[in-house]
Amino acid sequence: MASKLQNSVRRAARVRRSLKKVANGRPRLSVYRSAQNIYAQVIDDVAGHTLAAASTLEKDLRGALKSRASTDAAAAVGKLLAERAVKAGVKEVVFDRGAYLYHGRVKALAEAAREGGLNF
């Protein structure tokens, strides 16, 4: 019987495999959600490097947030990431939710990134 970790890795790989089919060279907005923080980065898979990144661990966000594990914190990270990505010249991305459901903090981050100027 597969463990929860194995199922999670398998689910994330399935999502990423389907994204590669529709990406058409667009960078990937990848989300990692832990129990206490949320992290997001825009990755250029062709060149293999990160174009922009943001997380709740950054000093300017850490002081302004009541909780780093809330949807408000995720929205702040999404907005900050969108600003940095647009500044780096990226407007079109594909959203990689990983093994997480598109709900709660992941959804809040995605919607804030859309409002910040990213299209996906």
Summarize the structure.
By secondary structure, the chain is α+β, with helices and mostly antiparallel strands.
Brief descriptors of the model:
single chain; 120 residues; alpha+beta; Nucleotidyltransferase, domain 5
Give your account of this protein's structure.
There is one protein chain. This protein has a single domain, classed as 2-Layer Sandwich (Nucleotidyltransferase, domain 5). 44% of the residues lie in helices and 19% in strands. It contains 4 helices and 4 strands; from the N terminus they run H-E-E-E-H-H-E-H. Strands 3-2-1-4 form a 4-stranded mixed sheet. A hairpin with a 4-residue loop joins strand 1 and strand 2. The longest helix is centred in the first third of the chain and has 19 residues. The radius of gyration is 14 Å and the shape is globular. The termini are far apart. The relative contact order is 0.20.
